[in-house]
Amino acid sequence: MNTFSTSLEASESRPKAVAIITARGGSKRIPHKNVRDFCGKPIISYSLRAALASGVFDEVMVSTDEEAIADVAREYGACVPFLRSAETAGDYASTDDVIREVLLAYESRGQHFQRFCCIYPTAPFVTAQKLKTAMELLDKAESVMPVVPFSYPPQRGIILENGRVRRKYPEFLTTRSQDLETMYHDCGQFYACRTDAFFRDSTTDVDDLLPMIMPEMEVQDIDTEEDWAIAELKFLHMKDGNPAP
């Protein structure tokens, strides 16, 4: 049997899967955020290249309302079969709203995907291997989320009331940090999910949700110019061959 036929059989034996990169236009805090240059390339290109290189998706698509973003997506090998609706391009539309629109649009065209992975366009630390691992984990759970431990115990968090510092959880004031339960937060990079579970619960945040624990050096929210600068420093650190601790 030749390599092509072996690859074809492997593809046909696994559930069909789509990668959905969500990249609307109109970013206010960082203009043109999704296609802005990040260490020499449009930031969205890192998500696209990882999805394409993973080899686990039957389709890699970009959901956007902006032709300029669509052009960049096509340049890097993704497809843009339709533009996002006005309803899901607004400031108050959720990621789940976008996923639902995409999956239903494909269904209306006769294309059904048993699994999907929603990847953010500003996630340069996403790799092909991470996406491959996430999709493989869907054999064991209905959904997969990358998470990272809080760098500081949230149980020690403070709030400001009337210009004064107040401890949110004073009961943990004298508890040793090593005795506090480790808490994690969403990396904001991607979500892998079985399609039937998503439509059942209208979210990727289902009960049967597996974590992928990420090192802090490979996680960075990018909402401000300072975030952007930190992300580039982390990315260059990793690119220079320095493994995450």
UniProtKB/TrEMBL annotation:
Organism whose genome encodes this protein: Eisenbergiella tayi
Taxonomic lineage of the native organism: Bacteria, Bacillati, Bacillota, Clostridia, Lachnospirales
InterPro entries referenced in this protein's UniProt entry, alphabetically: CMP-NeuNAc_synthase, Cytidylyl_trans, Nucleotide-diphossugar_trans, PseF
Protein EC: 2.7.7.82
One Gene Ontology term of the molecular function aspect: N-acylneuraminate cytidylyltransferase activity
A Pfam match: CTP_transf_3
Keyword Protein biosynthesis listed: no
Record-linked PANTHER family: HAD SUPERFAMILY MEMBERS CMAS AND KDSC, N-ACYLNEURAMINATE CYTIDYLYLTRANSFERASE-RELATED
Keyword presence, Transferase: yes
Record keywords, A-Z: Nucleotidyltransferase, Transferase
Alphabetized CDD domains for the sequence: CMP-NeuAc_Synthase
Name the record gives this protein: CMP-N,N'-diacetyllegionaminic acid synthase
